[in-house]
């Protein structure tokens, strides 16, 4: 809630590093449709691997592991479960299936968050319920030492704080306070600081991140496991979370460390996606398709320069030509004159 409240003031400047991440991600969003059309069989294999990696990595971050020989059966079969760990892996798989099949039809709401928690926690007594007692975030060291890293929102305040957080996020998206990917990471940070559940907060935060990606047009999590990438950079994940949560209660925290980490993960996922599917050879009309895709993604008025930044290698003359053709068919309209004129989708 506190991070979203910061952005509600609309006075925060976006750091240069954040802008670079957003530009790279936006460009790769334009490419994802081309990959999906040209190599469907390879993408099917990637989806299967991502499903396994996501379920295993997200639970392993929390110290939950199972026999490797059982993973395929747990993810794709209907086995008799041997223990609690297998139940949690299967539950996370069910939550992933819900997100991947429903995508944007599944709203980002309290109801959905509770449903995701209920699925990934299995039949445990408080699955799908907010914490009943105060729970602090404890950091455990290899030598057995522990320390309180962050004091979370009290159990008594949690339900109302979650309502306000979701409401702020919805308001931010509707009023376009800032780039939606930044709001997505802000919601994720606030969720982790609230720590609404007794257990399973990390897993639900990663499921929420995946769902939010779909809502912002980021589909790479269907092919590359975001959870695995977070596990690979687990130390940095915890470091940025601690850096950005310091002063959260007072609204004096700096959220950019964690936000940039999330954008780094998404950017890394797209880079891996590109590497795994291989370079697609340029074909006739490929640049045109990229420009069309980028224009279609624009939710607010844009300039030709905005489109060119997201389409490296495409000339301004080509972008102008495409915009004029779209204007002739009534798909876009020009809001002014001259080289700085703004355009918008109709």
- Proportion of beta-strand residues: under 5%
Number of β-strand runs: 4
Q: Return the CATH class of the largest domain.
A: Mainly Alpha
Question: What CATH architecture of the largest domain would you give?
Answer: Orthogonal Bundle
| Helicity range | 55-70%
Number of helices: 15
Apparent shape: globular
Describe the structure.
This protein has 346 residues and is mostly helical. It folds into two domains: 2-277, Fic-like fold (Orthogonal Bundle), CATH 1.10.3290; 286-345, Arc Repressor Mutant, subunit A. The protein has 15 helices and four strands. The protein has helices at residues 2-8, 16-38, 40-61, 71-76, 84-102, 110-120, 158-175, 180-194, 201-215, 226-232, 234-245, 256-277, 286-297, 304-310, 316-328, and strands at 137-140, 146-150, 332-334, 343-345. Strands 1-2 form a two-stranded antiparallel ribbon. A two-stranded antiparallel ribbon has the order 3-4. The longest helix has 23 residues, at 16-38. The chain starts with a helix and ends with a strand. Mean pLDDT is 88; it is low at 279-284.
Key words describing this protein structure:
346 residues; mainly alpha; Fic-like fold; Arc Repressor Mutant, subunit A; 2 domains; two-stranded antiparallel sheet; two-stranded antiparallel ribbon; 15 helices; 4 strands; globular
């Amino acid at each position: 809630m506190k991070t979203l409240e910061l952005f509600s003031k609309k006075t925060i400047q976006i750091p240069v590093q954040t802008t670079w991440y957003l530009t790279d991600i936006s460009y790769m969003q334009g490419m994802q449709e081309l990959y999906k059309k040209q190599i469907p069989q390879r993408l099917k294999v990637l989806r299967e691997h991502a499903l396994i990696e996501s379920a295993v990595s997200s639970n392993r971050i929390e110290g939950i592991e199972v026999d490797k020989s059982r993973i395929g059966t747990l993810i794709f079969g209907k086995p008799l479960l041997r223990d609690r760990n297998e139940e949690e892996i299967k539950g996370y798989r069910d939550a992933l299936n819900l997100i991947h099949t429903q995508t944007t039809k599944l709203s980002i709401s309290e109801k959905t968050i509770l449903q995701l928690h209920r699925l990934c926690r299995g039949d445990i007594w408080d699955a799908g319920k907010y914490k009943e007692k105060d729970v602090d975030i404890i950091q455990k060291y290899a030598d057995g030492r522990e320390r309180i890293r962050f004091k979370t929102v009290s159990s008594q305040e949690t339900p109302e704080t979650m309502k306000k957080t979701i409401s702020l996020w919805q308001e931010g998206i509707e009023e376009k306070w800032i780039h939606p990917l930044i709001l997505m990471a802000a919601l994720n940070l606030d969720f982790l600081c609230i720590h609404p559940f007794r257990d399973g907060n990390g897993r639900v935060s990663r499921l929420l991140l995946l769902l939010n990606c779909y809502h912002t047009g980021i589909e790479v999590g269907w092919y590359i496991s975001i959870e695995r990438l977070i596990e690979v950079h687990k130390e940095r994940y915890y470091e940025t979370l601690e850096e950005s949560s310091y002063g959260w209660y007072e609204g004096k925290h700096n959220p950019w460390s964690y936000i940039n980490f999330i954008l780094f993960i998404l950017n890394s996922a797209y880079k891996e996606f590109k590497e795994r599917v291989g370079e697609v050879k340029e074909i006739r009309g490929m640049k045109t398709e990229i420009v069309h895709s980028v224009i279609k993604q624009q939710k607010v008025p844009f300039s030709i320069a905005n489109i060119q930044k997201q389409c490296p290698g495409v000339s301004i003359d080509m972008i102008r030509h495409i915009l004029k053709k779209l204007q002739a068919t009534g798909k876009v309209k020009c809001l002014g004159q001259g080289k700085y004129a703004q355009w918008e989708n109709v």
